[in-house]
Design goal:
By secondary structure, this protein is α+β, with helices and mostly antiparallel strands. The protein folds into 2 domains: 93 residues, Nucleic acid-binding proteins (OB fold (Dihydrolipoamide Acetyltransferase, E2P), Beta Barrel); 301 residues, BirA Bifunctional Protein, domain 2 (2-Layer Sandwich). 31% of the residues lie in helices and 27% in strands. The protein has 12 helices and 18 strands. An 8-stranded mixed beta sheet has the order 6-10-11-18-17-16-13-12, with helices on both faces. Helix 4 packs antiparallel against helix 6, helix 4 crosses helix 11 and helix 7 packs across helix 8. The two termini are 33 Å apart.
Length: 437
């Protein structure tokens, strides 16, 4: 039998139906018993009077525990006295499909009732909360809208290998794995392979897949195992074109979320889903430094000059919010020393940008250097030789100009719902000190 979801119960009034879900609450009173049963879409009250006709059902309920799962057949009736949706189910049969055998080690309905580490240890229980279930529905909605957008714009989905023979990107730390009789690595990103697709003539590709970073960082926005939404497109003439495309991508995703879940997000997270206007503000890094110093007395740490850090990103958001009333800003003109070797340069300046949203970097987007000789020289500057030999080979046989970017799905969910940490946002978090459950 097809499951009836509780959000659709209005379609079944005055009918006999069968529902399934978790027991959310039990009230066993002198003359009546009440069960509140929930699924991922809502809750329903089940009412059982105590009388000779219901002895068997009364006994089942008396021995039932919260968080057990049940299958209940009965008649769904309208009842204005019932506070929960003005309806109740009068059961003729109750089957316990699984019983909760022990008291829960945490109260998942109150995130403040347990330490975050405890909640992560029992993530399978913590995820039962209404907020967490909504969070992953929101994430699904946003990513699905973005996926549909890129497909509508003639992108092809690819699936690149996650076990690779050499470190990708620009030498960032990687996880080493044993691959039969030799060493291999977990991919930090599909960067090289999506550029290979450009050399193959695919023109527009995307991938939604895991990526791995062996960074010993314990910040609120870093993880060792995350999901990335990667975009690469050929025949891109300017950085402006890339930024325009990402604007449309975000607007599409956020519009879909606001339409479907905006009210629930406001109710459970107290966050307004704001649809940004085009164009997003754009500012050169040097100009941003000057504005942040003038307005907030901020000076970039010496080792970070030519780039941004967490503090400058937060202040950039504050500045843009005050000046433009906008949540997003593109920062351009970073130092070549701080950017990957494959970024295209113009007069020595990398043709790329960071997109800051709510005070956090969400994307590094860039035009790619597709000229073989220049690319070899830039790799040499970074001290990269054998590690990128297979990558450089792509560009010997003709490659169109191209560019792209990647979004961390977990991070944009964190920013959208303002959870404050990836530990709260990810289905299962992985960090330097956490590899369980």
């Amino acid at each position: 039998m097809k499951k009836i979801y509780f959000e659709n119960l209005n379609e079944y009034l005055e009918k006999e139906i069968t529902i399934e879900g978790f027991v959310d609450n039990i009230r066993d009173l002198q003359y009546v018993q009440f069960l509140i049963v929930r699924d991922t879409t809502g809750k329903i009250q089940v009412t059982i009077e105590k009388n000779q006709y219901n002895n068997k059902l009364n006994e089942i309920v008396s021995n039932l525990s919260n968080e057990s799962t049940v299958k209940i057949t009965g008649t769904l009736l309208k009842n204005e006295k019932v506070k929960l949706n003005g309806m109740e189910l009068i059961p003729s049969d109750i089957i316990i499909t699984s019983k909760c055998l022990e008291n829960l080690p945490l109260n998942y309905k109150d995130s403040k009732s347990a330490l975050l580490d405890t909640r992560l240890n029992y993530r399978f229980l913590d995820l039962r909360s209404e907020k967490n279930i909504l969070m992953f529905k929101v994430q699904t909605c946003m990513i699905n809208a973005m996926r549909e957008f890129v497909i509508k714009n003639n992108f092809t989905e690819i699936h690149t290998p996650k076990i690779i023979s050499a470190a990708s990107e620009s030498g960032a730390e990687v996880f080493e794995v044993k691959y039969f009789d030799r060493k291999a690595y977990l991919a930090q990103s599909p960067q090289f392979y999506k550029q290979m697709a450009m050399c193959s003539g695919f023109e527009k590709v995307f991938e939604i897949a895991p990526a791995f970073r062996a960074e010993n960082s314990n910040s609120y926005r870093h993880t060792t195992d995350f999901t990335s939404f990667d975009i690469e497109m050929s025949y891109v003439d300017s950085l402006e074109e890339l930024m325009d495309f990402e604007e449309d991508l975000f607007i599409t995703g956020l519009s879909s979320v606001k339409e479907k879940y905006g009210e629930q997000i406001k109710k459970l997270f107290n966050v307004d889903v704001i649809i940004p206007t085009k164009p997003f503000p754009r500012i050169k890094l040097e100009e941003l430094y000057k504005e942040l110093e003038k307005k907030y007395g901020f000076k970039m740490d010496y080792e970070c000059v030519g780039d941004m850090n967490a503090e400058s990103e937060k202040l950039a958001y504050k500045y843009v919010k005050e000046k433009y009333g906008h949540e997003f800003v593109f920062v351009t003109d970073f130092s070549a020393k701080k950017r990957a070797f494959y970024h295209k340069r113009k007069n020595g300046i990398p043709q790329g940008a960071d997109l800051i949203w709510k005070g956090c970097e969400t994307t590094t987007l860039a035009l790619r250097e597709h000229n073989y000789d220049i690319l070899c020289q830039q790799a040499k500057e970074k001290g990269l030789k054998e590690d990128v030999k297979f990558y450089l080979e792509f560009f010997k046989y003709g490659c169109p100009p191209h560019g792209g970017f990647a979004l961390g799905i977990d991070r944009i969910t964190m920013l959208l719902l303002e959870t404050g940490s990836l530990k709260e946002t990810m289905f299962i978090f992985r960090g330097p000190d956490r590899i369980e459950p």
